[in-house]
Write a structure and sequence with these properties.
Elements (H helix, E strand, L loop, with lengths): L1 H67 L4 E3 L2 E3 L62 E6 L2 E6 L15 E6 L2 E6 L13 H12 L2 H18 L4 H14 L3 H15 L4 E6 L5 E6 L10 E6 L5 E9 L7 E3 L27 E7 L4 E7 L1 H9 L5 H5 L5 H15 L4 H15 L1 E2 L2 H4 L8 H6 L2 E2 L1 H15 L3 E7 L2 E7 L10 E4 L2 E6 L21 E4 L1
Parallel strand pairs: 14-15
Antiparallel strand pairs: 1-11, 2-9, 3-4, 5-6, 7-8, 7-11, 8-10, 9-10, 12-13, 16-17, 16-20, 17-19, 18-19
Length: about 550
C-alpha cells in the first residue's frame, strides 16, 4: 500500500514537473519572440531614422545645389591681414652678467606630475627622393613680404610646380604628407570632373557628389582617423584633402570642388566656393576661427547668420590673391556649419623623430640631445599664422617630451621651484641663437615650440612660446605674455611670499615677475633696459 502511494506521488510529481517544464519552455519561447519583435521594432525604427536622415540630407543637398546654381554676386572688397610687430624688433639683444642659480626658497608652487606619454605613431617615411622634410606644396594664397635686392616685395607662391604629373589611378592611393606615407582607399567614382566654372556647372558637380554619400563618408572616416592618430588640428583635414585631391584629380577646378564638398558635407565646416573675376578659376574660401586673427591670407567679409559678417579666407584654387570674386551669399544651411579651428588639442604624432639638436643648460653646465620631427615642422609651417596664445600652448614631439621629462624630473629633485624656473629661463636664453624673422626669412613668422628646436635661429616671441610651454608643462606656476612695442617677453606668478624680487606687474590681483627669455643671462625679475619704463600689454595664456 505504501509502495503504491509512493508511486502515485512520484507520478504526480513527474506530471507536475513536466507541466512546469512545458510552461517554462513556453515562457522562454514567449520571451524569445518578444525579444525578436523588440529587435525588429528597434531595427525598423533605426532604419526609419536612418532613412529619414538620408532623405533629409538628400533634400538639403538638392536645395543647396539649386541655391548655388543661381547667379553669383560680385565681391570686390578684400584685404590681407599682415603679421607685423608695432615696431621693428631688436636686431641685437643685450646680455646681462652671468649669475649662478637664484638663491631663493619657495614652498608656494608645486611641480606638475608628469603624465604618461602616448606611443609614437607608426607612420612610414616616403622614399621618393624628396626627403623627410619635403612639403608637397606651398599654399597658393599665402602672401608674405620677402626682402630681395630690389627691395621689399609681396610674394604669392604658385602651387602648380608641386603637383605630380602622373595622377594615381585605382583605389589604393599613396599620398606624400610632409614626408610621411599615407595610404587611402579611394573609390574611382569620386574622381568627378566639373565641366566648367559657371554656376550651373558647379551645381551639377555638387549633385553628382551628393549621389556618392557612402563613398564620401568612407573616405572621410579614413581622413578622420589620420587626423586623430597624427594629432592634427582641424586645419589638417584640409591639408590631407588638398594633398589627396592633387594625387587623384588632374584639374584644379575639380580639386577645388572636391575639397569644398568634402569639407562642407562630410566635415561640417563653413567653406564656400567662388570664381575669380580676372582668372575665371574656381577657388576655395574657408571661415577660420574668427575669434582669432589669421595672417597673410586674403579674406572677404561675407554675410553669415543673424546679419553678422565672417572673414572667409582664400585657401586654395587656381586664381590669384589680388582679384575680386563671384560667389553666392549667405545660405541658411550654412548656419549650423562650424569654422575651422587652429588650436592644437593633442600632441603632433607623425611618426618617429628624424633629427636631433644638442642644447645646453648653461647655468648648471649640462647638455641634452633633443629630437624633433621634420614632418611636424613642415606641417606647422603650413598652418596659418595666428595669435600668440596658440603658440604658447602647443606641445613638442613625444620623443622630445621624453627627453625633457628625464632631465627636468632630475632637476626637480635638486632645486626648489623658483630655482628650477630660473634654470629653464636661462636654458631658453642661451641655447638658441637670436635673429629676427626678417633677418632669417624676410617676413614675420611665429614659431611653435618644436620649430624653435628645429630652426637655427629664433626671436623674442618664439623663445617666449618655448619658455611658457616648459613652465606650464612642468610646474604649476602661471605664465602671461608681455607685449611691448617691438618686443615680447613673459612674466610668471610664483605664489605669495616666495622671496622673489625684481620687476613685476600686478595682474588680476597677483604679482607676476618679469622673465625675459630673450635677455641673455638675465635672472628672474630683470627687464631689458630699453623696456624698463614701458608698460606692456598683458597676453593671457
Amino acid at each position: 500500500m505504501k509502495k503504491s502511494a509512493l508511486l502515485l506521488m512520484f507520478s504526480l510529481f513527474m506530471v507536475s514537473s513536466y507541466a512546469q517544464d512545458d510552461e517554462y519552455q513556453r515562457y522562454l519561447e514567449s520571451m524569445k519572440k518578444t525579444q525578436e519583435e523588440f529587435k525588429q521594432d528597434a531595427d525598423a525604427a533605426k532604419q526609419k531614422i536612418s532613412q529619414e536622415f538620408i532623405d533629409y540630407k538628400a533634400k538639403a543637398d538638392a536645395e543647396f545645389a539649386d541655391y548655388i546654381a543661381k547667379e553669383w554676386q560680385l565681391f570686390e572688397e578684400f584685404r590681407i591681414q599682415e603679421l607685423a610687430m608695432s615696431m621693428p624688433k631688436l636686431e641685437e639683444v643685450p646680455q646681462a652678467a652671468e649669475t649662478g642659480v637664484t638663491d631663493v626658497t619657495s614652498d608656494e608652487i608645486k611641480f606638475t606630475a608628469t603624465d604618461a606619454l602616448p606611443q609614437v605613431a607608426d607612420i612610414e617615411n616616403v622614399n621618393d627622393g624628396y626627403g623627410v622634410g619635403f612639403t608637397p606644396r606651398t599654399d597658393n594664397y599665402v602672401v608674405r613680404k620677402v626682402i630681395t635686392n630690389e627691395g621689399v616685395q609681396n610674394v604669392t607662391t604658385d602651387f602648380s610646380s608641386f603637383v605630380k604629373n602622373s595622377i594615381a589611378s585605382g583605389q589604393e592611393v599613396q599620398v606624400n604628407f610632409y614626408g610621411k606615407k599615407l595610404m587611402f582607399n579611394v573609390d574611382d567614382k569620386l574622381r568627378v570632373k566639373v565641366k566648367g566654372v559657371k554656376e550651373s556647372e558647379v551645381s551639377d558637380y555638387f549633385k553628382e557628389m551628393a549621389k556618392l554619400r557612402n563613398e564620401t563618408n568612407a573616405l572621410w572616416q579614413q581622413i578622420d582617423n589620420y587626423v586623430s592618430v597624427m594629432g592634427l588640428n582641424e586645419w589638417g583635414y584640409f591639408c590631407i584633402l588638398r594633398s589627396l585631391s592633387e594625387n587623384i584629380i588632374d584639374d584644379v577646378n575639380s580639386r577645388v570642388l572636391f575639397n569644398f564638398y568634402m569639407l562642407r558635407n562630410e566635415g561640417g565646416f563653413k567653406v564656400k566656393t567662388a570664381r575669380g573675376k580676372d582668372s575665371n578659376s574656381l577657388i576655395l574660401l574657408a571661415a577660420i576661427d574668427n575669434e582669432k586673427e589669421v595672417y597673410s591670407y586674403t579674406f572677404f567679409r561675407l554675410d553669415d547668420a543673424d546679419g553678422k559678417q565672417l572673414k572667409y579666407y582664400l585657401i586654395y584654387g587656381g586664381g590669384n590673391a589680388q582679384e575680386s570674386i563671384y560667389t553666392y551669399n549667405f545660405s541658411e544651411q550654412d548656419k549650423e556649419m562650424k569654422q575651422i579651428g587652429l588650436d592644437f588639442n593633442n600632441t603632433l604624432n607623425m611618426g618617429s623623430c628624424d633629427a636631433t639638436r644638442e642644447l645646453n643648460f648653461a647655468k648648471i653646465d649640462t647638455k641634452i640631445l633633443l629630437p624633433y620631427n621634420s614632418a611636424h615642422v613642415a606641417y606647422l609651417n603650413d598652418v596659418p599664422m595666428t595669435i600668440f596664445p596658440i603658440y604658447f600652448a602647443s606641445p613638442i614631439s613625444i620623443e622630445a617630451q621624453q627627453v625633457f621629462n628625464s632631465k627636468l624630473n632630475e632637476l626637480k629633485q635638486q632645486y626648489n621651484p623658483v630655482q628650477f624656473i630660473d634654470i629653464i629661463l636661462n636654458f631658453v636664453q642661451t641655447s638658441f641663437d637670436y635673429k629676427t624673422d626678417e633677418q632669417q626669412f624676410g617676413y614675420e613668422k611665429y614659431f611653435y615650440p618644436e620649430e624653435v628646436i628645429a630652426y637655427p635661429y629664433s626671436d623674442c616671441e618664439d623663445r617666449s612660446a618655448m619658455f611658457a610651454w616648459l613652465v606650464s608643462t612642468y610646474t604649476d606656476a602661471q605664465v602671461v605674455g608681455l607685449q611691448y612695442e617691438g618686443h615680447l617677453a613673459t612674466a610668471v606668478y610664483f605664489g605669495e611670499d616666495t622671496g622673489v624680487t625684481g620687476d613685476m606687474f600686478s595682474y588680476k590681483g597677483k604679482k607676476y615677475y618679469v622673465c625675459d627669455p630673450t635677455y641673455i643671462n638675465a635672472s628672474i625679475g630683470m627687464t631689458m633696459p630699453q623696456f624698463k619704463d614701458k608698460m606692456p600689454k598683458i597676453i593671457k595664456m
